[in-house]
Amino acid sequence: MSEYTKVFLLMGSPKGEKSVSNNIVSYILEKFHENGVKAEKIVIVKQVRTDDALNKLVSKAIDSDILILVSPLYVDSIPSITIKVLEEFYKLTKNSLRKKQKFMAIFNCGFPEPHHNDLAMDMCKKFASDSGLEWAGGVTIGMGPSLDGRSLEKFRMARNLCNGLDIAVEALMKGESVPREAMLIASKPLMPLSIVKFVMCNFGRFLWGNQMDKSVKKKMYDRPYES
Amino acid sequence: MKAVVLNGSNRDENPLNIWENIIVEKLENRGWEVETVELRNIKLSTCIGCFGCWIKTPGQCILKDNGVKICKAVARSDLLVLLTPVTFGGYSFELKKMVDRLIPNLLPLFTKINGEIHHKTRYEKNPKLLVIGYHPQYDEESERIFKELVHRNAINMDSPANHAEVVTGDINDVKGVAMLRKIKVIS
Ligand SMILES: Cc1cc2nc3c(=O)[nH]c(=O)nc-3n(C[C@H](O)[C@H](O)[C@H](O)COP(=O)(O)O)c2cc1C
Questions:
Q1: Closest Cα to residue B153, out of B59, B90, B97?
Q2: Residues paired with residue A39 on neighbouring β-strands, in sequence order
Q3: Is A174 part of any domain?
Q4: Which of A25, A31, A83, A208 is 20 to 30 A from B142, comparing alpha carbons?
């Protein structure tokens, strides 16, 4: 990889920097930086409020050699603000001759099964082929919220994810696509699914109740719009 | 019977707007009460992912704009119709803005559906789902992703029935009426 290679990480969480996606981006950025590669992060939610800011973001993304999207799953798909960036990217590039550019996507979702992210991944592949980008691979993460609040390497359950991401970064730096084995390691469930599903289905009230004020807890089941 | 039609078309002359007229006419002729929203023309913020609609004001988004009214109309409807240009197999930005804002109608609590985790819904009755996507020309992969997406959305919203259609090319009344005749969720 030459010192002129530009790596660009699109952080797609509407929550901004207090998000799981941002934790993942920080981990990847550090790996590139450790290897002396200039990688840059853009927080999409900060850059989509005006046409001008959005244009700047998309121009930078178009100009990169390796583009990595890290995003949460929203309603089985890509969050709206992140769709907006992909739509603009496509509009600006569709009829132009493109340089070689790689695209990788990493999605995390709230449900424990990583495969909820598969359709978002398919959309990213479609975006890549429609926009003339080379698909470099994807990682799907379930139970994302359990990776909130601390840096990724501090979570024991994220060790497979970190290992997979390390291999992915190494491959990208060599100008290769992400090896299938790295994607599989990184996409392993964080915990045994049967246990997590049991806990979520039987103790959901407590999991969410902990995040609510006492007065709100009583209203958890409210139906404000019932006719 | 009540229907809400959300048009996620990104411009005034999109063929989707003609589809919208045909669908509304068909529903009204059958006695449906129809509310239509041209999403590109209204003030609508994007979801900020705070989960306030579950943990602060259960059932209501904390962003007080048109999203609140639409969420309420959807909760009270029997049919939700979504119209969108197909972008990379998915919904357009304009439509997805509102779809992301519909989660107040779910509960934070979990349940298993076909062995997979999903959320329980807040209301006993949820609308059926009809989604029409427009793609200028036929594209197999886009259509596959689109139909699968609608199917998965219907699971998440606990829709009692759903139908997805991708339309291409020009549109006229005859073609529209012929297509709609086949769609069970509005017949
Ligand atoms: C509007 C909205 C829709 C969501 N839809 C899904 C979904 O369909 N499936 C899922 O597993 N998680 C869903 N989630 C949960 C997020 O994917 C999850 O909380 C994720 O960890 C957030 O990542 P972030 O911190 O990077 O934003 C949704 C969250 C929000 C706010």
A1: B90
A2: A7
A3: yes
A4: A25
Say how far apart CA A171 and CA A183 lie, in whole Å: 12
Q: How far apart are CA A210 and CA B28, in angstroms?
A: 47
- Report whether B153 contacts B146 (CB < 8 A): no
- For residue A24, being part of any structural domain is answered with yes
Per CB-CB distance under 8 Å, the chain B contacts of A80 are: 46-47, 93, 96-97, 99-100
Output the CA angle B147-A125-B159, nearest 5 degrees: 25
Mean pLDDT of A79-83: 98
Taking an 8 Å cut-off on Cβ atoms, the answer to whether A87 and B102 are in contact is no
Q: Range of A132's domain?
A: 6-191
Answer whether A153's CB lies under 8 Å from A162's CB.
Answer: yes
Would residue B113 count as lying in a domain? yes
User: Residue B164 has which token pair?
Assistant: 């997805």
pLDDT digits (tens, 9 = 90+) for B3-28: 999 999 988 778 899 899 999 999 99
pLDDT confidence tier of residue A123, bands split at 50, 70 and 90: very high
CATH of the domain at B152: 3.40.50.360
Range of the domain at B79: 2-182
Q: Which of B184, B161, B181, B164 is nearest to B173 (CA)?
A: B181
Q: Could you tell me if residue B187 is inside a domain?
A: no
Entry pTM: 0.97
Q: How many CA atoms lie within 13 A of B8 on its CB side?
A: 26
